[in-house]
Amino acid sequence: MASFRTWHCLLATSCLFLLLLASPAHGQLSPSFYATSCPTLGLIVRTTMIKALLAERRMGASLVRLFFHDCFVQGCDGSILLDDVGSFVGEKGAGPNVNSVRGFDVIDQIKTNVELICPGVVSCADIVALAARFGTFLLGGPSWAVPLGRRDSTTASLTLANSDLPSPASGLATLVTAFGNKGLSPGDLTALSGAHTIGFSQCQNFRGHIYNDTDIDAAFAALRQRSCPAAPGTGGDTNLAALDVQTQLVFDNAYYRNLLAKRGLLHSDQELFNGGSQDALVRQYSSNPALFASDFAAAMIKMGNISPLTGTAGQIRANCRVVNSS
């Protein structure tokens, strides 16, 4: 009898150990995380995203950028969604985010729709990750199985948002270091930068490139200067220009062809093809859209794995803009 009890105890301990290894508490994200608790999650997000893109196709690009800006600060934890409330200071007022990052209303709508079907189950951080996937796919880009199981942060960091998000004026070495600090390779940097095949940027982000840099096509610079005055603060700082002048609302590989022609809108864009380490990969992506699509999807999954909160860490926010009251 004693030997039986010993065997049973060992078996139970082994099973518990295996269970813990498979548990989200160990940081393992899985595309099937909500298969039982919210099986219609993908359909809800997709339907809401279709409606949002029908209202404004640019929103697809904005939500990809929102995911990037979330993951680079404290990890992919939904911290960027938090509003300043009372003494709580969030990340929305950081230099790279203020009056720039957008799509919060769409995330709110997705959250509302999800809560109607699966209350208290799905994190805002996972909703941002799914919105980025559908924002890419619905504009013609690749799709991928999004690893899920993130939980929401109860904190945010204005300081890290100001320091960790790369500037559009960054050089290649600075970009490589910034991405490397997040566990992303130079190849990931080049693939993820391809998100700039969709969307727009403000004049204040590319003014220096079109007026001061020499690694830019003169005709392209002149075109952009028409809507971006040389002097800051003269009313044109927030004027928009397409990151990809050819197919600004279609997710394709034209971004890389633009770089070959020295028509990258941002200084940081053109740095990827300027006699440096990423020139060869830019050439490959410019002529091989399937390779770019595959590498972009893989890099998005990798970025989505930056320091997620899992298991009992963080919380599942009822409102993506505020921490749950205790």
Structural topology:
Elements lengths: L1 H21 L18 H15 L3 H13 L32 H14 L6 H14 L20 H7 L7 H9 L5 H8 L6 E3 H10 L5 H8 L14 E3 L11 H7 L6 H4 L8 H9 L1 H15 L23
Antiparallel strand pairs: 1-2
What integer is the average pLDDT? 92
Low confidence ranges: 1-26
How do the strands line up in the largest sheet? 1-2
Biggest β-sheet strands, sense, barrel:
2 strands, antiparallel
Total helical elements? 14
Provide the number of structural domains. 2
CATH C-level class of the largest domain is Mainly Alpha
Q: Separation of termini?
A: 48 Å
Radius of gyration: 22 Å
Beta-strand percentage range: under 5%
CATH architecture of the largest domain: Orthogonal Bundle
CATH fold type of the largest domain: Peroxidase, domain 2
Estimated helix fraction: 40-55%
CATH homologous group name of the largest domain: Peroxidase, domain 2
Number of strands: 2
Describe it for me?
It catalyses: 2 a phenolic donor + H2O2 = 2 a phenolic radical donor + 2 H2O. One of its GO terms (biological process) is hydrogen peroxide catabolic process. This is Peroxidase. Its EC number is 1.11.1.7. Its cofactor is heme b; Ca(2+). This protein is mainly alpha-helical and 326 residues long. The N terminus is likely disordered. The longest helix has 21 residues. It is built from 14 helices and two strands, in the order H-H-H-H-H-H-H-H-E-H-H-E-H-H-H-H. It is globular and about 55 Å long. Helix 3 packs across helix 5. The protein folds into two domains: 125 residues, Peroxidase, domain 1 (Orthogonal Bundle); 131 residues, Peroxidase, domain 2. 41% of the residues are buried. Strands 1-2 form a two-stranded antiparallel ribbon.
